[in-house]
Design a protein that fits this description.
The complex is a heterodimer.
Chain A: E1 21-26, E2 30-37, E3 40-43, E4 53-54, E5 56-59, E6 65-67, H1 69-73, E7 82-84, E8 107-109, E9 119-123, E10 126-128, H2 130-149, E11 155-160, H3 166-178, E12 183-188, H4 189-201, E13 205-212, E14 217-225, E15 228-237, H5 242-260, H6 269-285, E16 291-297, E17 303-309, H7 310-334, E18 344-348, H8 355-365, H9 378-390, E19 400-402, E20 404-405, E21 409-413, E22 417-422, E23 426-427, E24 430-436, E25 446-452, E26 462-469, E27 482-488, E28 494-500, E29 506-510, H10 519-529, H11 534-563, H12 569-587, H13 591-604, H14 606-630
Parallel strand pairs in A: 1-11, 11-12, 13-18, 15-19
Antiparallel strand pairs in A: 1-2, 2-3, 2-4, 5-6, 5-7, 8-9, 9-10, 13-14, 14-15, 16-17, 20-23, 21-22, 21-25, 24-27, 25-26, 27-28, 28-29
Helix pairs in contact in A: 2-3, 4-9, 5-6, 5-7, 7-8, 11-12, 11-13, 12-13
Chain B: H1 8-11, H2 22-36, H3 46-67, H4 69-79, H5 94-112, H6 116-144, H7 147-175
The chains are: A alpha+beta, B mainly alpha.
């Protein structure tokens, strides 16, 4: 528990206290949790020694919820209540889901405006959103970590496919909140993999991460140089993965069965799940073998007995393989690189075990891909390293990640067209402004519609938010100057503001996609899931406030020790006064007062912070000038 | 971020001239981010984090400008109070306009013929053209200090950048 960090009143918190932080790979097929222990990133295992937790959730007849291997074992007999690959539904509406007929679930969609437009699944435990189902997987991982680490987690870095859009990212964050996890950051999966690979191999140069998971495909190109991991470009397909290969095999099996049975009756949900499972097993078997036998008995008594050869597998899935190469070419073009510039290609994700994937990658990049890391674990290991840093723990790996925004962000303009403001593959954090004007005489309001995507038409992009700028003084069409600023911070959070330049009238929105859950829904779900007493909550808040205060006191004290000469003695005294006040308050039991004093201290250190930052810039510059002399 | 007074070249400690060493720029960009990125200040007070965020944003913007010859030239002219793409600056030599039209027609034809090879070919020619203009700009901005001529060349470079972006877009469409 974070309470460990509370120090004696009047003393600053121990700065070397290790804060428990984890990296979570919330995968389509399997999920993992890892942490940095004694400087080493390690995947945490369950009581049976399993590292991988199958991302399967089963709602039991007795009301229990079972996650992982046990749920997976029953997926064919209880398909409707056993949800697999829920990641494919995150932040999606019903219209987004392809092949619905071949997915053995009962889908619903909230229609009225008070509920979310996110799809829902009918289970025996009622309607469940993908966010709730994912939260069960996260809760299971969180429990594993707390048991194994013997304490409460300070926070988690959760990985998402780089090509996830804002709605999918928001849904992932909502799931984490619902599971009681503090999200330090969402990290792109290929970037996480690059961290683990790069540190493990002390790699320097330009690397491609080709990440084909259970349900998503990402390709990222990174430059690794002296601990800085700079993403040059990323691309992908958020609905392409190993599942689609299973589905192709499943269709092939059905065709074969139909050839022999003219009046073949429709499949039950159990049959569909059974055949999909058999298809997956056949695919995995063909990694090391030339042919796979698929044998099973369907509910109507039909015996399925077919043999799939490795070359047949290649044939039926060829177009899926080439679907990964198109994003790969795009990423290469965006990075303005050619094949010769690539120092290595790292394969990530279980689906990259398929030999024909490896061949395709090797053929395109004209070099043998690197497979010396476990493709299942590398993402979680990298996430744990970033979590350790973001939790404020001292780390030997002096690394910095510079990631990009995967999809362009823009505004709707006249005629339903998109004007891009931030282009895809821009390094974060980023701020970009663009000026717009009115199109009607006397127009006093302007509606700002924020969209995400690469297409030219608004209807082909994903809508993220809408807001209005009102109170524009009446002017001739085209005379008003409205400056719209998009800001994406290091966490990938987008906020948009609009300002009429002559009057200074402003409107602002922090973008929360319409596909996510509303704040009220999250709160009510949280209430439903935590039955903890009000007292517990207060104690928790107080503990958190104290930890927070301790961290700030120690960092300001440390900063003063080094840099107090940058400000006047009076300013130093003012800051020290606030530190003392805060220290006294941490001894009392009022969380609100502590938080207020933290804010006051923060405020009091603003000028000091700016001075330190300037000094740091000058120092950095001075260092560089010296180096230039050496040249 | 344009309103800031910090000079992009100074930020990365490189000489304020058009002809720059990309390797030094890249390496100094990484050093600047290493020192000032908000991820370096996770346990710092909010005010310090905010400054770090602003600095990191500025560094990203400065890097993206200096990296691109067209944006770099435009930025240098801005430092001298010249807006290269202002509407008063629209005049273009007829010869250049003709050439532009020719490129656009060829792109359109290649698009119809679905020929990525031809598009790559045009992109290659534009790259050569870019190199010529970049050499010219080095001459005009760094040696002759002829800002008027430099503005005209910068405009050409910006136009070529747009044509290149269009080619990329067409290739992408054909690839899908």
């Amino acid at each position: 528990m974070a309470l460990l960090q509370i120090s004696e009143p009047g003393m600053s918190a121990a700065p070397h206290q290790h804060r428990l932080a984890v990296g979570i790979d919330l995968g389509t097929t399997n999920s993992l949790i890892a942490t940095v222990r004694s400087g080493m990133s390690t995947v945490l295992q369950d009581d049976f020694g399993h590292a991988l937790l199958p991302s399967v959730v089963r709602y039991m007849p007795n009301g229990d919820i079972v996650v992982g291997h046990e749920a997976q074992a029953h997926q064919s007999e209880d398909p409707i209540n056993t949800i697999t690959s829920v990641k494919r539904f995150m932040g999606r509406s019903l219209n987004d889901i392809a092949n619905k007929a071949h997915i053995p679930y009962r889908f619903f969609e909230g229609t009225d405006s008070t509920t979310t437009r996110s799809l829902q699944l009918q289970t025996r435990a009622g309607l469940k959103t993908p966010v709730e189902i994912s939260a069960e997987i996260l809760k299971s991982l969180k429990a594993r970590a707390e048991k194994s680490l013997g304490g409460e987690l300070v926070g988690a870095v959760i990985t998402v496919p780089a090509y996830f859009d804002d709605a999918q990212r928001q849904a992932t964050k909502d799931a984490a909140r619902l599971a009681g996890l503090n999200v330090l950051r969402l990290l792109n999966e290929p970037t996480a993999a690059a961290v683990a690979y790069g540190l493990d191999n002390a790699a320097e140069g330009t690397f491609v991460i080709y990440d084909l998971g259970g349900g998503t495909f990402d390709v990222s190109i990174l430059r690794l140089s002296k601990g800085v991991f700079e993403v040059l470009a990323t691309n992908g397909d958020a609905a392409l993965g190993g599942d689609d290969f299973d589905h192709r095999i499943y269709c092939w099996v059905l065709d074969k069965v139909r050839e022999n049975n003219a009046n073949f009756s429709p499949l039950t949900e159990e049959d569909t799940r059974l055949l999909l499972t058999k298809a997956r097993q056949a695919k995995e078997w063909l990694t090391d073998n030339f042919e796979a036998q698929i044998v099973c008995k369907l509910s109507n008594g039909t015996l399925v007995d077919v043999t799939l050869t490795a070359s047949q597998l290649i044939e039926v899935t060829e177009h899926l393989v080439s679907k990964t190469l198109s994003p790969t070419r795009k990423a290469m073009r965006d990075a303005k690189l050619s094949i010769e510039d690539i120092n290595g290609v790292v394969l990530v994700g279980g689906a990259t075990r398929m030999p024909h994937i490896r061949h395709a990658v090797q053929e395109y990049f004209q070099q043998e891909p690197l497979t010396n890391l476990d493709p299942d674990k590398v993402v979680a290991l990298g996430a744990a390293i970033q979590a350790n840093i973001l939790a404020g723990n001292k780390s030997d790996d002096d690394l910095l990640l510079l990631d990009v925004t995967p999809l362009s962000l823009g505004l709707e303009t006249m005629g339903g067209l998109v004007e891009k403001v931030i282009h895809r593959n821009s390094t974060l954090p980023i701020a970009r402004a663009q000026e717009f004007t009115t199109y009607k005489d006397g127009q006093t309001a302007m509606s700002v519609h924020v969209v995400q995507g690469e297409r030219e038409l608004v209807s082909d992009c994903r809508s993220l938010a809408r807001f209005e700028l009102r109170g524009i003084p009446p002017m001739a069409a085209g005379a008003a100057r409205i400056r719209v600023t998009f800001t994406v911070d290091a966490d990938g959070l987008l906020s948009v503001s609009a300002r009429e330049q002559s009057t200074g009238i402003e409107a602002h929105i922090a973008v929360k996609p319409s596909y996510g859950l509303t704040e009220d829904e999250i709160t009510s779900m949280l209430k439903a899931s935590f039955n903890s007493a009000e007292e517990d909550k207060k104690a928790r808040m107080l503990a958190e406030a104290r930890v927070n205060a301790g961290a700030i006191i120690s960092s300001v004290t440390a900063a003063l020790a080094i840099d107090s000469k940058l400000i006047s003695p009076a300013e130093v005294e003012a800051i020290e006064l606030e530190i003392n006040k805060l220290q006294q308050l941490t001894a009392a039991n009022d969380a609100t007062a502590i938080n207020q004093a933290v804010d006051t201290l923060n405020h009091a250190t603003e000028a000091f912070a700016a001075a330190r930052m300037n000094a740091s810039v000058s120092r950095a510059l001075a260092g560089k000038s010296l180096e230039n002399l050496d040249l | 971020m344009q309103s800031t007074s910090i000079n992009y070249f100074k930020l990365f400690a490189i000489a304020e001239q058009f002809d720059l060493d990309v390797t030094t720029l890249e390496s100094n960009f990484r050093k600047t981010q290493s020192a000032n990125h908000p991820d370096r200040f996770v346990s710092a007070p909010a005010s310090e984090k905010l400054v770090a965020m602003q600095l990191a944003t500025l560094a990203n913007e400065a890097y993206s400008v200096l990296k691109s010859p067209a944006k770099r030239a435009k930025y240098m002219l801005e430092q001298h109070g010249i807006d290269a793409i202002a509407e008063t600056n629209t005049a273009m030599p007829t010869e250049f306009l003709m050439q532009q039209m020719e490129w656009r027609e060829r792109i359109e034809d290649a698009k119809m013929a679905r020929s990525i090879t031809e598009l790559d070919e045009i992109a290659g020619e534009l790259k050569l053209e870019t190199n010529l203009l970049v050499n010219e700009l080095h001459e005009l901005l760094d040696i002759k200090k002829d800002l008027t001529s430099a503005t005209a060349v910068t405009r050409k470079l910006i136009f070529i950048d747009k044509v290149c972006a269009d080619i990329d877009q067409v290739i992408e469409q054909l690839d899908d």
